[in-house]
């Protein structure tokens, strides 16, 4: 049985990876031709164009991987039926569920790898690609921000800075106001600049003054450096990209959603919807593979053609439902998590219904 498992897994991986490579190269070529005028107008060197293309590849891979393994699974199962290999496997004592098991395990492994890849390398590459694109064709930086104000949700302080330098993680001309549990101002801090301490996860203020209000008395003091371990707001929240949850690290995105839900529920719904879609995107590989496994492949002729048509039609239904649910969750009609769950349940139910209809008519 191990020989059969290896044969099935290798066949799925071979076809899936080959299709993924071809689809990615096609999209990359289309994007290159689409951006060619900008490249020529800006007189970009070949090395810069190559760098932009390489940074775009991880996102293109994630765009194509679901359809690639849908095609691979459909192709493999249709060939088993078309070449009568399925009959041989069934006559040898293997059930259809047993044949499907190595397919599911292989695609599950691919899904988990894609999930880790999408939350790490792809996000970093996408962020760097967007930043470089804007620097080449637009403004000087996509992350640096001026006149930025951040409040800690559920906290007791507000920070304003005249300018934030993302490269150095430094705030310039900083003013911080704190208040006590009763909402009364308790202290005011002014500093020439503040640096993010990544090891401690807090900000260190430099060259400033601190005024502390206690009752009716105000105590003033100056300092060269002052580390405030209670100010833990990450640098990303001071950037112009702070609202782009698609490029935030996962831990920062969770923190951002928690803060946003406390201060602005209306903005939380579209942000949470985008974040849930981002997390669930790699699992489309597994969902579409399950759709393929639930399909009917017992056509009398043109097995591969009709198999790929029914698989692609079901995949279209899945992505359309996903888009509609995303719109409705962004408008606060449903909980953001339902925008991920409803398309999966509806698509699998449709695939199962098609399989049952095929058995009845077959």
UniProtKB/TrEMBL annotation:
> Which Gene Ontology BP annotations are present?
lipopolysaccharide transport
Q: Name one GO cellular component term.
A: ATP-binding cassette (ABC) transporter complex
Tell me the superkingdom of the source. Bacteria
InterPro entries in the cross-refs: LptG/LptF_permease
The topology of this chain with respect to the membrane is: Multi-pass membrane protein
Question: Which cell locations does it reside in?
Answer: Cell membrane
Indicate whether Membrane appears among the record's keywords. yes
Q: Where are the transmembrane segments?
A: 12-34, 54-78, 99-123, 275-296, 303-321, 333-357
Q: Which UniProt keywords apply?
A: Cell membrane, Membrane, Transmembrane, Transmembrane helix
Pfam families, alphabetized: LptF_LptG (PF03739)
Name of the protein: LptF/LptG family permease
């Amino acid at each position: 049985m191990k020989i059969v498992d290896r044969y099935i897994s290798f066949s799925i991986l071979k076809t899936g990876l080959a299709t993924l490579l071809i689809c990615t190269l096609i999209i990359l070529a289309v994007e290159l031709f689409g951006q060619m005028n900008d490249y020529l107008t800006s007189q970009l060197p070949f090395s810069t164009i190559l760098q932009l293309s390489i940074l775009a590849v991880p996102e293109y891979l994630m765009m194509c991987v679901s359809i690639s393994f849908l095609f691979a699974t459909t192709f493999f199962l249709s060939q088993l039926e078309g070449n009568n290999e399925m009959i041989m496997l069934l006559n040898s004592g293997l059930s259809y569920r047993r044949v499907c098991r190595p397919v599911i395990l292989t695609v599950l492994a691919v899904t988990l790898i894609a999930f880790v890849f999408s939350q790490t390398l792809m996000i970093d590459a996408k962020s760097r690609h967007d930043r470089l694109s804007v620097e080449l064709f637009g403004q000087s930086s996509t992350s640096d921000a001026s006149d930025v104000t951040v409040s800690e949700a559920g906290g007791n302080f507000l920070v304003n800075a005249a300018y934030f330098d993302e490269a150095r993680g430094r705030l310039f001309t900083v003013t911080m106001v704190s208040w006590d549990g009763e909402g009364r101002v308790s202290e005011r801090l002014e500093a020439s600049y503040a640096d993010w301490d990544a090891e401690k996860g807090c900000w260190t203020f430099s060259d400033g003054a601190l005024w502390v209000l206690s009752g009716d008395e105000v105590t003033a003091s100056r300092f060269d450096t002052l580390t405030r371990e209670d100010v833990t707001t990450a640098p990303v929240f001071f950037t112009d990209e702070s609202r782009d949850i698609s490029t935030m690290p996962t831990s920062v995105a969770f923190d951002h959603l928690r803060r946003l839900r406390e201060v602005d529920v209306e903005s939380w719904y579209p942000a949470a919807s985008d974040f849930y879609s981002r997390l669930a995107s790699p699992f489309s590989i597994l969902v579409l593979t399950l759709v393929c496994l639930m399909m009917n492949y017992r056509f009398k002729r043109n097995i591969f053609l009709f198999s790929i048509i029914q698989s692609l039609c079901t995949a279209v239904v899945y992505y359309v439902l996903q888009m509609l649910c995303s719109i409705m969750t962004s408008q606060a009609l449903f909980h953001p998590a339902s925008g991920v769950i409803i398309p999966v349940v509806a698509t699998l139910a449709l695939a199962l219904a098609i399989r049952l209809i095929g058995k009845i008519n077959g």
